[in-house]
Amino acid sequence: MNFVGEHILSVAQLNRADVEEIFAVAEKMTPFAQRKQITRLLEGAVLCNLFFEASTRTRLSFGAAFNLLGGYVRETADIASTSLVKGESLKDFARVVSGYSDVIVMRHPIDGAVAEFAESSRSPVLNGGDGSNEHPTQALLDLYTIKKELRARTKDLDDLRIAVIGDLKHSRAVHSLIKLLKLFRNIRVHLISPPALSAPESMITELLEAGHRVQQFEQLELGIQAVDVLYVTRTQEERFSSSAEALKYRGLFRINQAVYSQHCEPDTVIMHPLPRDSRKAAQELSEDLDAHPNLAIFRQSDNGLTVRMALFALILDVADKVKDDSVPVGWYADAGKWD
């Protein structure tokens, strides 16, 4: 696709060549994300971050990514502080906000709301997560992380073996990742969840029709064997009708040092889109793995910067200008923290 001026609302917009282009540009962004170089290519440009659900990584990394390209960020992190609570339509809201912005990132609790907003926006819109529907940039940074982790093991995305664990019904990150995986070759997917939280049948069908292998498991220990990557997700409590209903599933599957050592191959990568639920009743990914070299969750989070910088650079048509517009960092920056 030609990214210039385009919305990014769903991974369904992308083909394999598009994904590889994003990843190639993300590699070029690494010196800027790691504070080795500075660029001001987007000086004067304005990003509006509209986050109407809780967010740490997505909101802050989108803002930091735009700042690192030299742009300015304006944020609204509470729907109650907007005129939407006065009855303003998403259509009117989009027309107004897009007049103040060169690009917009939106997160919304309702499936499809970001796409509805984008229909009336005069500026490109990136989906920062809409309900339980999709989270395209999370899936891109997840796949980019998988690619980098496998490269260090002399493997590639083709022939990937991945176990996806937890609340597969409600996790928008999982939904987008599954859609992206079908673009590659000979993928084997283990879907591990209780029956009530299984992945949507339509997504399983898409994988099968693309020629990939899918197995569903209710037992964690069986599903995590003979895979390259564990992709763990929390119970999405905010999508349940009540906390009591979510509590039935919280902590049902737990990856800890003992489980990992006993059932996984020694070089299996451990991932999680975060936040992980560290409450005693949950702990789907135990902190006793924090020092394990195969735990990639913080490298994964860091990769959100480079991937989101790449998307901004492509959409605003500056990706090929970055190399010619950079100077060394003039302040103390601990490059070792990205090792």
In a few lines, what is going on in this structure?
By secondary structure, the protein is of the alpha/beta class. It has helices spanning 16-33, 57-68, 90-98, 113-120, 136-151, 172-181, 201-209, 220-223, 243-247, 257-263, 297-315; strands at residues 37-38, 46-51, 72-76, 103-108, 125-130, 161-165, 188-192, 213-217, 229-232, 269-271, 327-328. 35% of the residues lie in helices and 14% in strands.
How would you describe this structure to a colleague?
With 339 residues, the chain is an alpha/beta fold. The protein folds into 2 domains: 11-134 and 304-338, Rossmann fold, CATH 3.40.50; 136-298, Aspartate/ornithine carbamoyltransferase (Rossmann fold, 3-Layer(aba) Sandwich), CATH 3.40.50. It has 11 helices and 11 strands. The chain has helices at 16-33, 57-68, 90-98, 113-120, 136-151, 172-181, 201-209, 220-223, 243-247, 257-263, 297-315, and strands spanning 37-38, 46-51, 72-76, 103-108, 125-130, 161-165, 188-192, 213-217, 229-232, 269-271, 327-328. Strand 6 (161-165), helix 6 and strand 7 form a beta-alpha-beta unit. 42% of the residues are buried.
Number of helices: 11
Which structural class best describes the helix and strand composition?
Answer: alpha/beta
Average of pLDDT: 94
Number of domains: 2
Tell me the number of strands: 11
CATH architecture of the largest domain: 3-Layer(aba) Sandwich
Give the strand order of the largest sheet, numbering strands 1, 2, ... along the chain: 8-7-6-9-10
Helix-strand topology string? HEEHEHEHEHEHEHEHEHHEHE
What's the CATH class of the largest domain, please? Alpha Beta
Q: What radius of gyration results from the CA coordinates?
A: 20 Å
Distance between the termini: 33 Å
Q: What percent of residues adopt helix (DSSP H or I)?
A: 25-40%
Q: DSSP strand (E) fraction?
A: 5-15%
CATH fold call of the largest domain: Rossmann fold
Main sheet specs: 5 strands, parallel
Overall shape: it is: globular
The stretches of 5 or more residues where confidence is low (pLDDT under 50) are: none
